[in-house]
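I am still learning, so would you mind making up any protein sequence you like and the tokens describing how it folds?
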Amino acid sequence: MAYQIIDVSNIVTTATPTGIGVSFSETSPIFKTIYNTTTQAKENLKTLLLTRKGERYMEPNFGTDLLGIVFQPNVSELKQIITDVITNPIAYWLPYINVDDLTIITAEDDPELQHNVKITLIFSVGEFSTDSITLTANANGSMTII
């Protein structure tokens, strides 16, 4: 049996990237392809946080009550309620996401804020890089997520 030894420096590979998910684009009606795990985890996290419980067909417990809670009156227990509403569903539905830091700022903390609640969630996926999501509940009843 004969063998041929090929120099590895001469091997040319033309691999096309494979997308692992899609992202909603605010500027275009076309879905953007996602190629890395952290970005896909961020999109999964946004979907979980912005889905109301009972909204998803055949999965009535998927989602959070966050959209209803952030527009409630600003009471002293609001931060703890929001923390529970965010961390418990993440631990159940997205266990591969580690919540590294959760910062909740209300008008009680900073009276100069133009919104009622600002939530910053810093997360990581395994040993990969960290990323963050910022949710802002405005006084006019709208919510933005970045």
About this structure: DSSP finds three helices and six strands in the chain. The longest helix spans residues 78-93. Residues 36-145 form a domain with the Nuclear Transport Factor 2; Chain: A, fold (CATH 3.10.450.40). The chain has one domain: 36-145.
